[in-house]
Amino acid sequence: MRAMVYRGPYRVRVEEKPDPRIEHPNDAIVRVTRAAICGSDLHLYHGMMPDTRVGHTFGHEFIGIVEEVGSSVQNLQVGDKVMVPFNIFCGSCFYCARGLYSNCHNVNANATAVGAIYGYSHTTGGYDGGQAELVRVPFADVGPSIIPDWLDDEDALLMTDALATAYFGAQLAEISEGDTVAVLGAGPIGLYAARSAWLMGAGRVVVIDQLPERLEKARTFAHAETINFNQVDDVVLEMKKQTDHLGFDAVIDAVGAEADGNMTQHLTSARFKLQGGSPIALNWAIDGARKGGVISVMGAYGPIFSSVKFGDALNKGLTLRMNQCPVKRQWPRLLEHIRSGYFKPSDIVTHRIPLEDIAEAYHLFSAKLDGCIKPVIIPDAS
Amino acid sequence: MDTPMERTGHPPVYTHRKPPLPETPEQLRARIPGWGADLDPADRPSYPREIAAETGAHWDLPEPQPEHGERERSMEHGMLTPVFGTAQPLQGLSGVVRRYAYRRHSEGKAAHWLLLLAADRVDVAEHVLRSFATLRPDNPITETGIRAEVKHGSSRFGKGRSDIRHQAIDPVVNGAPWVAGALAAAWAVRRVARRAG
């Protein structure tokens, strides 16, 4: 099969790889029809995630058609069109039994600090991902769902991570009616999180970023106010001014490990890999929230330490909530919202790129060229 | 409209009052599709955090995936997980470093992660060298996707983006390990050559 492979920091290419095979009775093999590049894939691409091995195929956002099933699979058949949550989970361990699918204990031999994710290094289990023609899907009876006939392919694709994660992030912000909500980052997660905050009754939603085209999207797609942090002297002070010096009731970090806006932090983390992630956005969240406020962390960070301003979080009495999203738990309610017209997930897709051009797709997205917000990969573009 | 501060001479936060919102719930409901649809936490799928989940699993402990060869695991696990990835098994010098990181250090130690990061760099060097013995050696032009700059133009400039400020030194930072590696190799070769001579 043809598949994207990692060759080293900032270098990827398409290679011919052996087809994946059934390795466990509850495995399925899925022929990928659409995949996406996620902002968190860029952390792998930039060499920030420990145990990212050369030859690894990235991609945890994908949909496709079931090509083969293992002997114990009961809920799927060959030919079913499925969306696959980015979490790999068993459905029966201590965590899965409590709905914490992203924290499954039975699927990641390499680490207990994180569950398993498709195509996201060996630190998250060592499973090849979906930026390929075929992918192995463990626990086929638990993870994937058949895509409803009425749902567009790209809308289904964005349910596998971006939309679900953002919606989950807004829930973790514990929003009450009339709350002021700041969203750091106007990428796909930030944009959907801003939309989701309104569903939970936010009174104001302010999105903070530095890219004019993304801030424009925040105003039109997410109905939010915006702050361009490059056009203010001090973004935390601006957050205070915007809230009559109170601070925001809730702040959602939708940036994560490669936050820019502070040269020292960015270089020591994103460039020199001396921190698990650049804590710029997280520190702005902590300082921009009101005392007693809530921080929801949706941006991805690596397992190494980061210089987070924990004292401020303590002294302000903040609640910090975070997790990888248990995607499948979000789907029933999200499908209702899509049917009601509250979400049109694919509205943020800006680029559709053949798998054969994967290197250019990664550079385009990484360097944020051409107004790229969400690139979709088409494995069989012919 | 006067701000609360203009009306009172002080921001409302210094009293018990919460700053007023620019729009009423009725205005927000009219302007924003779905406003308040999940106002009740009971409608939010991840509330409460833990639930008794129906997942479709028809096992208590999943039957174990057959092992073919060595499979490294975190020493914080009590056993090899029933299911595991088989994407890129340990190999070469990087495999030696990774095996040591998994066997010697728990996830709680920085050494575990720093060794894995170091092994990643060794892995890349090994594969670059190995690629020169194949029909498809690594090609920094095609693999970095730099042609996207030409196709899509330098649209990042002129917008005050903070990433522009450090882009001048990015190649230095990213290229430094390669230069250091090349210098070390040259030094080693010279030393061996001198001894031989």
Overview of the molecule:
- The complex is a heterodimer of chains A (382) and B (197).
- Chain A has eleven helices and 17 strands.
- Chain A is an alpha/beta fold and 382 residues long.
- Chain A has two domains: 2-161 and 343-378, Quinone Oxidoreductase, Chain A, domain 1; 163-322, Rossmann fold (3-Layer(aba) Sandwich), CATH 3.40.50.
- In chain A, strand 11, helix 5 (212-220) and strand 12 (225-228) form a beta-alpha-beta unit.
- The longest helix of chain A has 13 residues, at 327-339.
- In chain A, 68% of the residues are buried.
- Among the domains of chain B are: 1-30, no CATH class; 92-137.
- In chain B, helix 3 (92-104) runs antiparallel to helix 4.
- The model of chain B has no long low-confidence stretch (mean pLDDT 89).
- The chains are: A alpha/beta (382), B mainly alpha (197).
- Chains A and B meet through strand 2, helix 3, helix 4, helix 7 and helix 10 of A and helix 2, helix 3, helix 4, helix 5 and helix 6 of B.
Task: Summarize the topology.
The complex is a heterodimer of chains A (382) and B (197).
Chain A: E1 2-8, E2 11-16, E3 28-36, H1 41-45, E4 61-69, E5 81-84, E6 87-88, E7 116-117, E8 134-137, E9 145-146, H2 153-159, H3 162-172, E10 180-184, H4 188-199, E11 204-209, H5 212-220, E12 225-228, H6 235-242, E13 248-253, H7 263-271, H8 280-288, E14 289-297, H9 310-315, E15 319-322, H10 327-339, E16 351-354, H11 358-366, E17 375-378
Helix pairs in contact in A: 3-4, 3-10, 6-8
Chain B: H1 4-8, H2 25-31, H3 92-104, H4 110-131, H5 140-143, H6 147-152, H7 163-167, H8 170-196
